[in-house]
Amino acid sequence: MVVWQRIFLALFVLGLSACGGGEPIKATPALVEEAYQWNQRAESAYRRGDLEVALDASRRALDLYRSLEDSDGVARELANLSSIHAARGETGQAVSVLAPILADGGAPFQSRHRAEAAYRIAVIEASRNTASAGEWLARAERHCQPECDVLGRILNLRARLLLGGKQVAEAQALARRASALHEKRGDRQEQANSLRLLGDIALANASPAEAREHFHRALAIDKDEAVPFKIFSDLIGIGRSFSAEGRRADALMHFRRARAVAQATGDTQGISEADRLLTNDGR
Amino acid sequence: MSILRDDDVRFRGLSRKIGFFVIFAVSAIVLTVLAIGVKQEIFTARTDFFFVSENARDLAIGTPVKLSGFTIGRVKKIELTDKADVRVTVSINNDYLKWVREGTRVRLLKEGLIGNAILDLEPGEGKALAVNSRIEFQRERGLTQVVDELHGEIVPIIKDLKRIVSYIENPQGDVKQMIHRANELFGALQGTQKKVDRLLDAANAELPATLRRGREAVEGGKKVVDSLQRTWPIRGNIEPPKPALLPMDSYDTRPRTVDQNGKKP
């Protein structure tokens, strides 16, 4: 072995030892590990629709995070509990469980926690009281200055509320902004929501071809993400765009496809909506 | 001239005494005959009917005809017909004719298993039958017939049993071969069981230590992995596990009849 080879080997070994000399090994505390396990169980139970198990697991995780005074963990589990209650149809509890995050003088929650909580309440309220939803959304926006993780979703929901209030131009501007933001962040589900919203706005602007383009893009994403009730909405949107152009056969075909999706998931509300559109030719 | 003296007082009124005696004796005989006749129902008014049987087995003149255990008549005549059947005439006391109507049937049966044969009359419900009408006849199965039937059924079973036993007993038959092989298998299993027992004993001695070493190896491996995770450049490529935040989709503003996965809550 020549001298330069020995020098290179010595330097290589020295380099390796330097790489291994990072911060000392620190084991995850048992309680943190246990809280993480409960969180994972809650999530998997929620995904498979076992909401009872999800509720129990999330409460256990919450207790553990509270015992550690982990505000991140507590805020996350309260948000999870809200989602589970909402999925169970318990909207009252879904809202009240988030109250500690928004309460003044409580645990030291950060603005991003409060923005998330206010946004979630706005989503729940949007299905029953749009005025209240608007107020909660405004509160979420205040906590989200200048920007936060939930901003894109806030924009989407705000645009939807504006469209519901016939403020089409304002809704379109927000939806476009939200779509660009989601595309940049790689949040595909929310990007599909923005596109679907833009489709609805285009229909309101009597531009069925443009609407169809947005719905088709949303449908492609929703199929990738495998979200049946959104696939249903995309198909209904495409059907309505055909109906607006007087293409009755194409419209009915898409309404039938939407009905089949709703039927497969047991979505009685979706079935009724598709039946109504099939009967009234998309009106 | 008289042989005996007419003036003997013992012979006075002899003719009258003999007359009384003869009258008394004849009256006694007549009464006896009448009593026997009454007893034998010779003077009872009867009506004849008939039935036809395949044969005369257990039938005889005088065989009683009974209704609910009471004798109401008897077999009067048995004769062969031109078709080689047996025509049996029964006489029924007129007092009991009200039960002999259309649909009446007589059954030949035994009183008890080996008792005398009787004809049991089952009353009909139709119109009263005319004299010398035909009534239905049925011969009940007797003990002999029952035994014959049983014999006919049991004999094939016994033959089958004999055949099965001989099949089982055949040294070259499947059953014997199977039992032989099962015995060999059980013998081999005993050897296997001993080996398994020895293995378990050995495992009992070594398993805890093996488990302990395994746990130590896993813990050691975890430390190595932890070290690697903190080693440049690997640590830059490993994301620490993050607890999940369940989504609240901005589009999910419909009344909640389904959850985010499209399932009913």
UniProtKB/TrEMBL annotation, chain A:
SUPFAM superfamilies: TPR-like. TPR repeats lie at residues 192-225. PROSITE patterns: PROKAR_LIPOPROTEIN, TPR. The keyword Lipoprotein does not apply. Keywords: TPR repeat. InterPro entries: TPR-like_helical_dom_sf (IPR011990), TPR_rpt (IPR019734). Gene3D superfamilies: Tetratricopeptide repeat domain. Coiled coil: none annotated. This is MalT-like TPR region domain-containing protein. It comes from Candidatus Muproteobacteria bacterium RBG_16_62_13.
UniProtKB/TrEMBL annotation, chain B:
Residues 236-265 are annotated as: Disordered. Pfam families: MlaD (PF02470). InterPro entries: Mce/MlaD, MlaD_Phospholipid_Transporter. Coiled coil: none annotated. It comes from Candidatus Muproteobacteria bacterium RBG_16_62_13. Residues 53-124 form the Mce/MlaD domain. This is Mce/MlaD domain-containing protein. Keywords: Membrane, Transmembrane, Transmembrane helix. The keyword Disulfide bond does not apply. The chain crosses the membrane at residues 20-38.
